[in-house]
Design a protein that fits this description.
about 425 residues, mainly alpha, globular
Length: about 425
Protein backbone atom coordinates (compact mmCIF):
# COMPACT_ATOMS: atom_id res chain seq x y z
CA UNK A 1 0.00 0.00 0.00
CA UNK A 2 1.46 3.34 -1.05
CA UNK A 3 0.33 6.72 0.12
CA UNK A 4 1.05 10.00 -1.61
CA UNK A 5 0.69 12.05 1.53
CA UNK A 6 3.67 13.98 2.81
CA UNK A 7 6.15 11.77 4.61
CA UNK A 8 7.00 12.60 8.20
CA UNK A 9 9.69 11.18 10.47
CA UNK A 10 8.88 7.80 11.95
CA UNK A 11 9.77 9.04 15.40
CA UNK A 12 6.65 11.23 15.44
CA UNK A 13 4.42 8.16 15.56
CA UNK A 14 3.68 6.12 18.68
CA UNK A 15 1.90 3.36 16.80
CA UNK A 16 0.39 2.62 13.45
CA UNK A 17 2.84 2.62 10.60
CA UNK A 18 5.68 3.61 12.92
CA UNK A 19 5.39 0.26 14.67
CA UNK A 20 6.83 -1.39 11.55
CA UNK A 21 10.12 0.46 12.04
CA UNK A 22 11.85 -1.80 14.54
CA UNK A 23 13.75 -5.06 14.76
CA UNK A 24 10.95 -6.50 16.89
CA UNK A 25 8.52 -5.89 14.02
CA UNK A 26 10.91 -7.64 11.60
CA UNK A 27 11.15 -10.69 13.87
CA UNK A 28 7.39 -10.86 14.45
CA UNK A 29 6.46 -10.67 10.76
CA UNK A 30 9.18 -13.16 9.84
CA UNK A 31 7.78 -15.64 12.34
CA UNK A 32 4.29 -15.20 10.91
CA UNK A 33 5.56 -15.95 7.40
CA UNK A 34 7.52 -19.02 8.55
CA UNK A 35 4.50 -20.33 10.45
CA UNK A 36 2.47 -20.08 7.25
CA UNK A 37 5.15 -22.07 5.45
CA UNK A 38 5.13 -24.69 8.23
CA UNK A 39 1.36 -25.00 7.90
CA UNK A 40 1.65 -25.42 4.14
CA UNK A 41 -0.26 -22.21 3.47
CA UNK A 42 2.51 -19.95 2.15
CA UNK A 43 1.78 -19.73 -1.59
CA UNK A 44 5.33 -19.69 -2.98
CA UNK A 45 7.46 -21.65 -0.52
CA UNK A 46 7.36 -24.97 1.29
CA UNK A 47 9.34 -25.60 4.48
CA UNK A 48 11.31 -28.77 5.19
CA UNK A 49 12.49 -28.40 8.78
CA UNK A 50 14.05 -31.86 8.66
CA UNK A 51 16.77 -30.30 6.49
CA UNK A 52 17.63 -27.61 9.04
CA UNK A 53 19.96 -29.94 10.94
CA UNK A 54 22.03 -30.56 7.82
CA UNK A 55 22.22 -26.82 7.23
CA UNK A 56 23.42 -26.35 10.82
CA UNK A 57 26.06 -29.05 10.28
CA UNK A 58 27.39 -27.18 7.27
CA UNK A 59 27.45 -23.82 9.05
CA UNK A 60 29.22 -25.32 12.08
CA UNK A 61 31.88 -26.83 9.81
CA UNK A 62 32.38 -23.50 8.08
CA UNK A 63 32.73 -21.77 11.46
CA UNK A 64 35.32 -24.32 12.62
CA UNK A 65 37.35 -23.83 9.45
CA UNK A 66 37.24 -20.03 9.51
CA UNK A 67 37.52 -19.50 13.28
CA UNK A 68 39.04 -22.60 14.93
CA UNK A 69 39.21 -20.85 18.32
CA UNK A 70 35.62 -19.60 17.98
CA UNK A 71 36.79 -16.01 18.49
CA UNK A 72 34.30 -14.72 15.95
CA UNK A 73 33.93 -10.97 15.40
CA UNK A 74 30.61 -9.28 14.87
CA UNK A 75 29.00 -9.37 11.46
CA UNK A 76 29.83 -5.85 10.28
CA UNK A 77 31.11 -3.86 7.33
CA UNK A 78 34.53 -3.59 8.96
CA UNK A 79 35.27 -7.24 8.12
CA UNK A 80 35.13 -6.33 4.42
CA UNK A 81 37.99 -3.83 4.78
CA UNK A 82 40.43 -6.62 5.72
CA UNK A 83 42.45 -8.17 2.88
CA UNK A 84 45.12 -10.83 3.35
CA UNK A 85 45.16 -10.08 7.07
CA UNK A 86 45.64 -6.34 6.55
CA UNK A 87 42.97 -4.02 7.96
CA UNK A 88 42.92 -1.13 5.51
CA UNK A 89 40.67 1.11 7.60
CA UNK A 90 42.95 0.66 10.62
CA UNK A 91 45.87 1.69 8.42
CA UNK A 92 44.04 4.82 7.27
CA UNK A 93 42.74 5.64 10.73
CA UNK A 94 46.16 5.13 12.32
CA UNK A 95 47.72 7.69 10.00
CA UNK A 96 45.25 10.38 11.04
CA UNK A 97 45.62 12.39 14.25
CA UNK A 98 42.02 12.75 15.39
CA UNK A 99 41.21 15.59 17.76
CA UNK A 100 39.13 13.26 19.96
CA UNK A 101 37.63 9.79 20.11
CA UNK A 102 34.28 11.35 19.21
CA UNK A 103 35.70 12.87 16.03
CA UNK A 104 37.22 9.51 15.08
CA UNK A 105 33.83 7.90 15.67
CA UNK A 106 32.07 10.46 13.46
CA UNK A 107 34.49 9.65 10.63
CA UNK A 108 33.88 5.91 11.14
CA UNK A 109 30.14 6.56 11.05
CA UNK A 110 30.54 8.54 7.81
CA UNK A 111 32.43 5.64 6.24
CA UNK A 112 30.14 2.89 7.55
CA UNK A 113 26.94 4.64 6.48
CA UNK A 114 28.09 5.49 2.97
CA UNK A 115 29.79 2.13 2.42
CA UNK A 116 26.81 0.09 3.61
CA UNK A 117 24.43 2.11 1.45
CA UNK A 118 26.69 1.37 -1.52
CA UNK A 119 26.69 -2.36 -0.71
CA UNK A 120 23.72 -3.42 -2.83
CA UNK A 121 24.35 -6.30 -5.24
CA UNK A 122 26.93 -5.43 -7.89
CA UNK A 123 26.33 -8.30 -10.30
CA UNK A 124 28.57 -11.28 -11.02
CA UNK A 125 30.59 -9.57 -13.79
CA UNK A 126 31.79 -6.55 -11.80
CA UNK A 127 35.16 -6.34 -10.02
CA UNK A 128 37.28 -3.63 -8.45
CA UNK A 129 41.01 -3.50 -9.18
CA UNK A 130 43.12 -1.93 -6.44
CA UNK A 131 46.75 -1.26 -7.41
CA UNK A 132 47.70 -0.31 -3.83
CA UNK A 133 47.20 -3.84 -2.53
CA UNK A 134 47.48 -5.61 -5.87
CA UNK A 135 44.10 -7.33 -5.74
CA UNK A 136 41.05 -7.58 -7.96
CA UNK A 137 37.95 -8.16 -5.85
CA UNK A 138 34.25 -8.57 -6.63
CA UNK A 139 30.95 -8.74 -4.80
CA UNK A 140 30.57 -7.22 -1.31
CA UNK A 141 34.30 -7.07 -0.56
CA UNK A 142 34.93 -5.31 -3.87
CA UNK A 143 32.19 -2.81 -3.12
CA UNK A 144 33.68 -2.24 0.32
CA UNK A 145 37.15 -1.67 -1.07
CA UNK A 146 35.90 0.70 -3.77
CA UNK A 147 33.85 2.72 -1.28
CA UNK A 148 36.77 2.86 1.17
CA UNK A 149 39.11 4.22 -1.51
CA UNK A 150 36.48 6.76 -2.59
CA UNK A 151 36.08 7.89 1.01
CA UNK A 152 39.86 8.00 1.49
CA UNK A 153 40.21 10.32 -1.53
CA UNK A 154 37.66 12.70 -0.06
CA UNK A 155 34.93 11.77 -2.51
CA UNK A 156 32.21 12.55 0.03
CA UNK A 157 33.90 15.53 1.71
CA UNK A 158 33.09 19.21 1.28
CA UNK A 159 36.84 19.88 1.58
CA UNK A 160 38.59 16.83 0.09
CA UNK A 161 42.08 18.35 0.15
CA UNK A 162 42.24 19.44 3.78
CA UNK A 163 39.72 17.09 5.40
CA UNK A 164 39.06 14.07 3.18
CA UNK A 165 37.95 11.48 5.77
CA UNK A 166 34.38 12.64 6.18
CA UNK A 167 31.05 12.73 4.37
CA UNK A 168 29.19 16.04 4.16
CA UNK A 169 25.55 16.54 3.29
CA UNK A 170 26.27 19.06 0.52
CA UNK A 171 28.85 16.84 -1.16
CA UNK A 172 26.58 13.78 -0.97
CA UNK A 173 23.71 15.75 -2.49
CA UNK A 174 25.78 16.54 -5.61
CA UNK A 175 27.06 13.05 -6.45
CA UNK A 176 26.04 11.84 -9.92
CA UNK A 177 25.86 8.37 -11.43
CA UNK A 178 28.99 9.08 -13.47
CA UNK A 179 30.93 9.66 -10.24
CA UNK A 180 29.73 6.30 -8.91
CA UNK A 181 30.80 4.62 -12.15
CA UNK A 182 34.24 6.25 -11.98
CA UNK A 183 34.77 5.36 -8.34
CA UNK A 184 33.72 1.75 -8.93
CA UNK A 185 35.59 1.41 -12.26
CA UNK A 186 32.36 0.58 -14.06
CA UNK A 187 32.42 0.35 -17.86
CA UNK A 188 30.83 -1.87 -20.54
CA UNK A 189 33.37 -4.60 -19.85
CA UNK A 190 33.04 -4.27 -16.06
CA UNK A 191 29.41 -3.26 -15.48
CA UNK A 192 28.21 -2.27 -12.03
CA UNK A 193 24.51 -2.88 -11.48
CA UNK A 194 22.49 0.06 -10.16
CA UNK A 195 25.04 2.90 -10.43
CA UNK A 196 22.23 5.41 -10.86
CA UNK A 197 20.34 4.00 -7.90
CA UNK A 198 23.42 4.26 -5.73
CA UNK A 199 23.90 7.90 -6.70
CA UNK A 200 20.27 8.66 -5.90
CA UNK A 201 20.65 6.95 -2.52
CA UNK A 202 23.67 9.09 -1.66
CA UNK A 203 21.81 12.22 -2.82
CA UNK A 204 18.87 11.32 -0.62
CA UNK A 205 21.22 10.62 2.28
CA UNK A 206 22.54 14.15 1.88
CA UNK A 207 19.03 15.57 1.80
CA UNK A 208 17.95 13.57 4.86
CA UNK A 209 21.02 14.74 6.73
CA UNK A 210 20.20 18.37 5.96
CA UNK A 211 16.55 17.87 6.92
CA UNK A 212 17.30 16.52 10.41
CA UNK A 213 19.92 18.72 12.09
CA UNK A 214 18.70 17.35 15.43
CA UNK A 215 20.12 13.96 14.41
CA UNK A 216 22.99 14.81 12.10
CA UNK A 217 24.47 18.20 13.02
CA UNK A 218 25.13 18.05 16.73
CA UNK A 219 28.82 18.97 16.67
CA UNK A 220 29.68 19.94 13.10
CA UNK A 221 28.37 20.65 9.65
CA UNK A 222 25.52 18.31 8.69
CA UNK A 223 26.99 14.88 8.04
CA UNK A 224 25.92 11.26 8.56
CA UNK A 225 28.58 11.00 11.26
CA UNK A 226 26.59 13.46 13.34
CA UNK A 227 24.38 10.50 14.17
CA UNK A 228 27.10 9.42 16.61
CA UNK A 229 26.21 12.34 18.88
CA UNK A 230 22.50 11.61 18.63
CA UNK A 231 23.11 8.01 19.72
CA UNK A 232 25.42 9.01 22.56
CA UNK A 233 22.64 11.27 23.83
CA UNK A 234 20.33 8.23 24.02
CA UNK A 235 22.77 6.12 26.03
CA UNK A 236 22.06 5.49 29.71
CA UNK A 237 25.09 5.16 31.95
CA UNK A 238 27.21 4.54 28.90
CA UNK A 239 24.99 1.76 27.52
CA UNK A 240 22.86 1.74 24.39
CA UNK A 241 20.58 -1.11 23.23
CA UNK A 242 21.29 -2.30 19.71
CA UNK A 243 17.59 -2.03 18.87
CA UNK A 244 17.76 1.68 19.68
CA UNK A 245 20.59 2.10 17.18
CA UNK A 246 18.36 0.61 14.49
CA UNK A 247 15.33 2.67 15.46
CA UNK A 248 17.32 5.91 15.25
CA UNK A 249 18.67 4.84 11.85
CA UNK A 250 15.17 4.09 10.61
CA UNK A 251 13.96 7.44 11.91
CA UNK A 252 16.80 9.44 10.39
CA UNK A 253 17.19 7.57 7.12
CA UNK A 254 13.64 6.49 6.40
CA UNK A 255 13.21 9.10 3.67
CA UNK A 256 16.25 8.04 1.63
CA UNK A 257 14.82 4.88 0.08
CA UNK A 258 13.31 5.56 -3.36
CA UNK A 259 10.13 3.87 -4.60
CA UNK A 260 9.33 2.24 -1.27
CA UNK A 261 5.90 1.73 0.27
CA UNK A 262 4.57 4.33 2.66
CA UNK A 263 1.60 4.18 4.99
CA UNK A 264 -0.21 7.01 6.76
CA UNK A 265 2.47 9.39 5.52
CA UNK A 266 5.32 7.31 6.95
CA UNK A 267 8.09 6.02 4.69
CA UNK A 268 8.44 2.31 5.42
CA UNK A 269 11.74 1.58 3.68
CA UNK A 270 12.53 -2.11 3.19
CA UNK A 271 9.01 -3.17 4.15
CA UNK A 272 6.55 -4.85 1.79
CA UNK A 273 2.97 -6.11 1.73
CA UNK A 274 2.42 -9.84 1.44
CA UNK A 275 -0.93 -11.26 0.28
CA UNK A 276 -0.78 -14.24 2.65
CA UNK A 277 -0.86 -12.00 5.74
CA UNK A 278 -4.22 -11.11 7.19
CA UNK A 279 -5.28 -8.64 9.83
CA UNK A 280 -7.69 -5.86 10.66
CA UNK A 281 -5.06 -3.14 10.42
CA UNK A 282 -3.10 -2.22 7.29
CA UNK A 283 0.17 -2.74 9.17
CA UNK A 284 -0.77 -6.40 9.72
CA UNK A 285 -0.32 -7.06 6.01
CA UNK A 286 3.25 -5.71 5.80
CA UNK A 287 6.54 -7.55 6.20
CA UNK A 288 9.32 -5.26 7.48
CA UNK A 289 12.85 -6.46 6.71
CA UNK A 290 15.17 -3.39 6.92
CA UNK A 291 18.16 -5.36 5.65
CA UNK A 292 20.61 -2.55 4.87
CA UNK A 293 19.56 -0.60 7.98
CA UNK A 294 20.22 -3.61 10.23
CA UNK A 295 23.51 -4.30 8.46
CA UNK A 296 24.37 -0.71 9.25
CA UNK A 297 23.27 -1.03 12.89
CA UNK A 298 25.63 -3.99 13.33
CA UNK A 299 28.38 -1.96 11.66
CA UNK A 300 28.01 0.99 14.06
CA UNK A 301 28.58 -1.13 17.15
CA UNK A 302 32.38 -1.08 16.96
CA UNK A 303 32.89 2.69 16.47
CA UNK A 304 30.45 3.33 19.32
CA UNK A 305 32.34 0.99 21.62
CA UNK A 306 35.73 2.41 20.60
CA UNK A 307 34.35 5.79 21.71
CA UNK A 308 33.30 4.38 25.09
CA UNK A 309 29.61 3.54 24.50
CA UNK A 310 28.72 -0.08 25.25
CA UNK A 311 26.13 -1.47 22.84
CA UNK A 312 24.05 -4.06 24.69
CA UNK A 313 21.34 -6.57 23.77
CA UNK A 314 22.66 -7.36 20.29
CA UNK A 315 20.05 -10.11 20.16
CA UNK A 316 17.50 -7.35 19.77
CA UNK A 317 18.53 -7.16 16.11
CA UNK A 318 17.64 -9.92 13.66
CA UNK A 319 19.42 -11.87 10.97
CA UNK A 320 19.75 -10.20 7.60
CA UNK A 321 17.28 -10.88 4.80
CA UNK A 322 19.78 -11.07 1.97
CA UNK A 323 20.74 -13.55 -0.68
CA UNK A 324 23.68 -15.28 1.04
CA UNK A 325 21.70 -16.18 4.14
CA UNK A 326 18.61 -16.82 2.04
CA UNK A 327 20.59 -18.81 -0.50
CA UNK A 328 21.82 -21.10 2.27
CA UNK A 329 18.27 -22.22 3.05
CA UNK A 330 17.28 -22.60 -0.60
CA UNK A 331 20.41 -24.50 -1.61
CA UNK A 332 20.07 -26.77 1.44
CA UNK A 333 16.40 -27.28 0.50
CA UNK A 334 15.09 -26.06 3.83
CA UNK A 335 13.04 -23.65 1.75
CA UNK A 336 11.68 -25.19 -1.44
CA UNK A 337 9.82 -23.21 -4.12
CA UNK A 338 6.39 -24.65 -4.83
CA UNK A 339 6.98 -23.91 -8.50
CA UNK A 340 10.55 -25.02 -9.37
CA UNK A 341 10.42 -22.88 -12.52
CA UNK A 342 10.29 -19.79 -10.27
CA UNK A 343 14.02 -20.16 -9.69
CA UNK A 344 14.58 -19.50 -13.38
CA UNK A 345 12.61 -16.25 -13.45
CA UNK A 346 13.70 -12.72 -12.57
CA UNK A 347 11.76 -11.22 -9.68
CA UNK A 348 11.13 -7.71 -8.37
CA UNK A 349 12.09 -7.17 -4.75
CA UNK A 350 8.42 -6.49 -3.98
CA UNK A 351 7.23 -9.85 -5.40
CA UNK A 352 5.59 -12.06 -2.77
CA UNK A 353 8.01 -14.80 -3.86
CA UNK A 354 10.94 -12.62 -2.75
CA UNK A 355 9.26 -11.10 0.32
CA UNK A 356 8.26 -14.53 1.62
CA UNK A 357 11.75 -15.94 1.02
CA UNK A 358 13.45 -13.06 2.79
CA UNK A 359 11.10 -13.14 5.78
CA UNK A 360 11.38 -16.92 6.18
CA UNK A 361 15.17 -16.49 6.05
CA UNK A 362 15.09 -14.13 9.04
CA UNK A 363 13.01 -16.57 11.10
CA UNK A 364 15.17 -19.53 10.11
CA UNK A 365 18.31 -17.68 11.16
CA UNK A 366 16.83 -17.47 14.65
CA UNK A 367 16.27 -21.23 14.56
CA UNK A 368 19.63 -22.26 13.13
CA UNK A 369 21.80 -20.11 15.45
CA UNK A 370 21.32 -22.25 18.61
CA UNK A 371 21.72 -25.43 16.53
CA UNK A 372 25.09 -24.20 15.29
CA UNK A 373 26.16 -23.29 18.84
CA UNK A 374 25.17 -26.77 20.05
CA UNK A 375 27.24 -28.44 17.34
CA UNK A 376 30.23 -26.32 18.32
CA UNK A 377 29.87 -27.23 21.98
CA UNK A 378 29.06 -23.76 23.24
CA UNK A 379 25.94 -22.06 24.51
CA UNK A 380 23.75 -19.76 22.47
CA UNK A 381 24.83 -16.95 24.81
CA UNK A 382 28.48 -17.66 24.00
CA UNK A 383 27.74 -17.77 20.26
CA UNK A 384 24.91 -15.30 19.62
CA UNK A 385 23.24 -14.71 16.28
CA UNK A 386 25.45 -11.71 15.43
CA UNK A 387 28.49 -14.00 15.48
CA UNK A 388 26.76 -16.95 13.80
CA UNK A 389 26.00 -14.60 10.89
CA UNK A 390 29.67 -13.75 10.53
CA UNK A 391 31.01 -17.19 11.29
CA UNK A 392 28.69 -18.48 9.78
CA UNK A 393 25.58 -18.51 7.72
CA UNK A 394 26.71 -15.79 5.31
CA UNK A 395 29.94 -17.61 4.52
CA UNK A 396 28.17 -20.96 4.17
CA UNK A 397 25.66 -19.40 1.78
CA UNK A 398 28.50 -18.06 -0.36
CA UNK A 399 30.28 -21.45 -0.30
CA UNK A 400 27.15 -23.20 -1.51
CA UNK A 401 26.62 -20.62 -4.24
CA UNK A 402 30.16 -21.14 -5.53
CA UNK A 403 29.74 -24.93 -5.60
CA UNK A 404 26.24 -24.84 -7.11
CA UNK A 405 26.29 -22.11 -9.78
CA UNK A 406 28.96 -21.07 -12.23
CA UNK A 407 28.56 -17.37 -11.45
CA UNK A 408 28.39 -17.99 -7.65
CA UNK A 409 25.23 -15.88 -7.65
CA UNK A 410 22.01 -16.25 -5.67
CA UNK A 411 19.64 -19.18 -6.30
CA UNK A 412 17.43 -16.90 -8.41
CA UNK A 413 17.64 -13.40 -9.79
CA UNK A 414 16.19 -10.34 -8.07
CA UNK A 415 16.09 -7.05 -9.97
CA UNK A 416 18.64 -4.73 -8.32
CA UNK A 417 18.32 -0.98 -8.39
CA UNK A 418 21.33 -0.58 -6.12
CA UNK A 419 19.30 0.01 -2.96
CA UNK A 420 18.24 -3.41 -1.61
CA UNK A 421 20.82 -6.21 -1.43
Amino acid sequence: MTSKTTERPAGTLEGGAGSLLSAAAVRSAARRILNLAAEGSLPDWALDRDRLGSAADLVANVVRERYPNLQIPLHARWRHFVFQGRDLWNDIRGARAWSSSAEAARAAFDLAITSVLLDAGAGSRWHYRDPLIGLTVGRSEGLALASLRWFERGGFSADPRRDPLRADADALSRIQASAVEDAFQSDPDNPLQGAGGRAVLLNRLGAATLARPDLFARADLPRPGGLFDALVARATKGELPAATVLEVLLEGLGSIWPDRPSLDGTALGDCWPHPALRGERPIDRFVPLHKLSQWLAYSLVEPLELAGVRVCDLGGLTGLAEYRNGGLFVDMRVLVPRDPAALGRIHAVSDPFVVGWRAATVALLDEIAPLVAERLGVTAQELPLARVLEGGTWAAGRLLARSTRADAGPPFQVLSDGTVF
